[in-house]
Input
Amino acid sequence: MPHFRTALLRDAGGWDPFNVTEDADLGVRLARLCYRTGVIDSTTFEEAPADLKAWTKQRTRWMKGWMQTLLVHARNPFRLIAELGASGMFGFIATAVANLASAIIHPAAIGLIVWQASSGVFFSGDNVLAAVVAALASANLVFGYAIAIACAAFGLFRRPMPGLIAHLVLTPLYWLLSAIAFVLALIDLIRRPYFWAKTEHGIGKRNAPVQLRSKRPARMRR
Output
């Protein structure tokens, strides 16, 4: 959960009222004014979406907001590079594009691997270039899954909530759902760019098992 000094918000002109991912827009605005942001070592206990419908709304909104942020701030690239610097502009563009492109590249990579394997091209060696691309896609998926699952598992043990670790096997499916959110966000950007798909909160707290509600690290209890 972001926290900002009021004076800095006023200096930045607030945030884009039409951007549905306001923290992404505001982060770039502050960077363009040479401000820096940091991370507070704290816990907000913000609730994650409790069902698929709520998750889809949230991810669609976030994806659309990143699209808006990229389109707005990159519309004058010369001014952007003057304010952010070459490295800052590259970091912003790379973050925004990677955040969006990965949602589509992931299912495309899986499709490529499945097609190559089912057609026998992957193993035949007749098309070296196709085999190399499929091998790189496979390695990228394996390492991507491994790193993501390891980080999530580490977080679950730190909470501590090891009982949820079995859900990590659904990581590939979870990533595929991001592609659906991307497509919905793109449609939303064209049809209703300023629509805010709100996410209902409090569902998880009401429905969570009692043992999970009380599983809070001692140093975080109040």
Residues 210-222 have pLDDT under 50 and may be disordered. DSSP finds nine helices and no strands in the chain. The chain has one domain: 6-37+50-195+210-215.
